[in-house]
């Protein structure tokens, strides 16, 4: 049987913006159908709720703090390999169509196809802009264009991405391939044609306790982030607006464009594995916050993940992470999983959902994207989540701990609640272990020396681990500092 895998991704699709996740007001029939044919993950998390870093983890299998993309507009190291490079080096055709955001350039990219991907199909946002006149370039960034008579789906980035994906599928239907289709939509400016442009006029979210979160026991940064919304009534925050309507309409439009690709998959590659996810979500007023930042709230970090190609019609509550996608792809194609990848293959679970791969997952934040560095600046965060608990460490601020079973809306910060001391400290130890094992560039005794961790005594040696880590199989073995000989173990202490 041919090995064919299609990876579909949108930008800024919250989990509750997909109908099958329990929100019947969301019109996403194609993704809903995909979920019926596969597995819908309830507890899947992004590695960082920012576009570039999130994508870096997906396509390299390493966390942003490892691959170097700790924020947007910063390039990964030139020795960082993507899954496209790994597959193409093993004779598997690889196409990438859509938003890339991993080359260190501006939002749109540099228009150059990176190693490992078919240059005939490369189509980042810079490539799209290069097809347009200067006048149309301006129109492509103006939300008001969506309401003008004659605005067509053919003008949109999403439609052109789908066109290319359909062509790729037709051309490669008789061979093994990996195709990634990465839509910018529904991310602003959220351009979409009729009827999507007015589909959600007058929409507001159902009332929810966290619209009324006063943030009094939350990090100071969050109160700054909320700004004028800190003391606003719920109906001033959760209310209809043209921006919200267009954003949700564009989300349904993205579903429509995905449907065009899914129809072609059914026609030419019916046995292919299909993975759908989003890079991150958006607060959209929850906790009186908008957009994304150094937070691990479900609205930004808990993303949709749907996988077709194994078990059918399943809803899975096991913990899942973007960090596991690259190893899963490697495993699907029968290739060895490189030792330096920091996730695990989900393939056993995809075929047999009772097999849990993770009991906890991790997400992080280092700073906001460069274009918005004036918004909050340096906000270093590391978080660990299980099905029931979530611990969020804000290195320069106060911390958070939630019992998600008792408090699904993440209102009650239990970081100082002695009732939870044992499980909180256990989660804390897991997080520190993760930071050490992945050689987190920003680790140090400060992560242990929290006001609520009274049993920790800091010392200069800290954990004692070296910076060196498992290196790329494409390269010679790294040399040990003390001997000059190839290192025997990457995970080792100096003291």
How does this structure look, described?
By secondary structure, this protein is of the alpha/beta class. It is built from 14 helices and eleven strands. The strands form two sheets. A seven-stranded mixed beta sheet has the order 3-4-1-5-6-2-7, with helices on both faces. The mean pLDDT is 94.
Please specify the SSE layout and strand pairing:
Blueprint: E1 4-11, H1 29-37, E2 39-45, H2 51-60, H3 64-67, H4 83-88, E3 93-98, H5 125-130, H6 134-139, H7 157-172, E4 177-186, H8 220-226, H9 234-237, H10 242-268, E5 273-278, H11 298-301, E6 305-308, E7 314-321, H12 325-332, H13 347-351, E8 361-367, E9 378-385, E10 389-394, E11 400-403, H14 421-437
Parallel strand pairs: 1-4, 1-5, 2-7, 3-4
Antiparallel strand pairs: 2-6, 5-6, 8-9, 9-10, 10-11
């Amino acid at each position: 049987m041919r090995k064919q895998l299609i990876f579909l991704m949108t930008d800024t699709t919250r989990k509750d913006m997909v109908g099958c996740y329990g929100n019947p007001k969301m019109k996403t029939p194609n993704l809903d159908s995909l979920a019926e044919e596969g597995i819908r993950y309830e507890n899947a998390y992004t590695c960082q709720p920012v576009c570039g870093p999130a994508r870096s983890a997906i396509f390299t299998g390493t966390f942003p703090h490892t691959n170097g993309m700790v924020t947007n507009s910063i390039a990964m190291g030139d020795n960082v390999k993507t899954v496209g490079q790994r597959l193409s080096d093993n004779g598997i055709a690889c196409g990438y169509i859509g938003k890339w955001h991993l080359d260190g350039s501006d939002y749109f990219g540099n228009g150059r196809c990176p190693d490992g991907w078919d240059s005939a199909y490369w189509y980042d946002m810079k490539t799209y802009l290069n097809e347009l006149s200067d006048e149309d370039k301006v129109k492509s960034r103006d939300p008001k264009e969506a309401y003008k008579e004659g605005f067509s789906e053919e003008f949109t980035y999403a439609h052109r991405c789908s066109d290319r994906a359909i062509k790729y599928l037709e051309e490669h239907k008789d061979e093994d391939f990996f195709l990634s289709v990465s839509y910018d939509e529904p991310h602003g400016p959220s351009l979409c044609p009729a009827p999507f442009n007015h589909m959600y006029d007058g929409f507001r979210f159902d009332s929810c306790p966290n619209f009324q979160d006063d943030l009094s026991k939350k990090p100071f940064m969050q109160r700054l982030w909320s700004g004028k919304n800190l003391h606003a009534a719920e109906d001033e925050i959760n209310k209809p607006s043209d921006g919200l309507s267009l954003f949700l309409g564009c989300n349904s439009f993205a579903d429509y464009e995905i449907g065009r690709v899914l129809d072609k998959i059914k026609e030419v590659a019916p046995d292919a594995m299909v993975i759908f996810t989003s890079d991150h979500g958006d607060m959209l007023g929850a906790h009186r916050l908008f957009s994304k930042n150094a937070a691990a709230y479900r609205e930004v970090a808990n993303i949709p993940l749907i996988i077709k190609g194994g078990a059918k019609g399943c809803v899975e509550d096991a913990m899942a992470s973007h960090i596991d996608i690259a190893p899963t792809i490697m495993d699907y194609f029968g290739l060895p999983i490189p030792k330096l990848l920091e996730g695990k293959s989900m393939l056993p679970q995809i075929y047999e959902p009772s097999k849990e791969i993770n009991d906890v997952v991790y997400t992080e934040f280092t700073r906001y994207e460069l274009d918005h560095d004036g918004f909050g600046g340096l906000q270093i965060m590391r978080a660990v989540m299980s099905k029931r608990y979530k611990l969020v460490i804000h290195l320069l601020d106060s911390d958070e701990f939630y019992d998600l079973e008792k408090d699904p809306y993440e209102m009650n910060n239990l970081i100082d609640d002695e009732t939870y001391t044992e499980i909180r400290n256990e989660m804390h130890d897991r997080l520190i272990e993760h930071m050490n094992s992945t050689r987190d560039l920003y680790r140090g005794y400060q992560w242990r020396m929290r006001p609520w961790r009274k049993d920790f005594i800091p010392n200069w040696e800290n954990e004692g681990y070296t910076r060196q880590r498992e290196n790329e199989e494409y390269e010679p073995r790294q040399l040990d500092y003390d001997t000059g000989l190839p290192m025997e173990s990457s995970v080792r202490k100096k003291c």
